[in-house]
Write a structure and sequence with these properties.
single chain; about 250 residues; alpha/beta; Rossmann fold; seven-stranded parallel β-sheet; 9 helices; 7 strands; globular; binds NADP nicotinamide-adenine-dinucleotide phosphate
Length: about 250
């Protein structure tokens, strides 16, 4: 039997990048995939097709993870269509980088709302069904900069540090019901998000990585697979750095 056979996994912001890779990896291991993004586009349509090639169910829902009521509605629809949610991956995230001197209130609010409030929204919305089932795995996408900070990313780092506090609290709150909650702290991963960085910044990052390369979304997906599955049945409240040794 496959590791995630017939599990229902909800992954936010998954039309591309790390979320997409997690969706594909989970499908490869037998999970039915529900994934979201702001709008249904070519990426979402292609991913639905690719996922179904693994012989699993796959469905896209347009949903803004930063909206509390939108997240409630999403979970209602998913429960109506699939009956349950076994795995939640809070992956949606954005950057609005700037030095504090130039960071606007809008940049601050936007990053905190999309990256951190979304984790509250979705976790709160799925908790009832997981409590009823007396099982569940929640995986939150933090970042190494949430652990160590980064100049020019005060808003992003604060949102990712907030996710770590939230993850540890929820692990303590829901552990007695067999619901596990863990965070992944990726380092420098090659996606659209990091493509935006200037070449010299990318080179500076590479020098700090003992494994001397940026990570791939697949590197993150494998750790997400471990945390989503029974392979990690005694692991909760943890932050796993997946960063080529950068944060050691
Ligand atoms: P990405 O390529 O920019 O993908 C992010 C996805 O989130 C996009 O599909 C985006 O949709 C979606 N999204 C944005 N706002 C959303 C919202 N309000 N509701 C629903 N979906 C939304 O980023 P990535 O590199 O794969 O990053 C995925 C996660 O890993 C993020 O939380 C990020 O902070 C974290 N992370 C990444 C790195 C890295 O090096 N790449 C490192 C550490 C942590 P649109 O296409 O509509 O914009």
């Amino acid at each position: 039997m496959k590791i995630l056979d017939k599990k229902i996994a909800l992954i936010t912001g998954a039309s591309r990048g790390i979320g997409k890779s997690i969706a594909l990896r989970f499908a490869e291991e037998g999970a039915n995939i529900v994934f979201t993004d702001l709008k249904y586009d070519e990426n979402a349509a292609n991913l639905e097709k690719e996922l179904r090639e693994y012989g699993v169910e796959a469905k896209f829902y347009a949903s803004d993870a930063s909206s509390f009521t939108g997240s409630e509605e999403l979970v209602k629809k998913v429960l109506n269509d699939f009956g349950t949610i076994d795995i939640l991956v809070n992956n949606a995230g954005i950057t609005r980088d700037n030095l504090l001197m130039r960071m606007t209130e809008k940049d601050w609010d936007m990053v905190i709302t999309v990256n951190l409030k979304s984790v509250f929204n979705l976790t709160k919305a799925v908790q009832r069904t997981m409590l009823k089932a007396r099982k569940g795995a929640i995986i939150n996408m933090s970042s190494v900069v949430g652990v160590s900070g980064n100049a020019g990313q005060a808003n992003y780092s604060a949102s990712k540090a907030g996710i770590i506090g939230f993850t540890k609290s929820i692990a303590k709150e829901l552990g007695s019901r067999n619901i596990r909650c863990n965070a992944i702290a990726p380092g420098f991963i090659e996606t659209e998000m990091t493509k935006k960085l200037p070449q010299e910044v990318r080179e500076e990052w590479a020098k700090k990585i003992p494994l001397r390369r940026g990570g791939t979304p697949y590197d993150i997906a494998n750790v997400a697979l471990f945390l989503a599955s029974d392979l990690s049945s005694y692991v909760t409240g943890q932050v796993i750095n997946v960063c080529g040794g950068m944060n050691t």
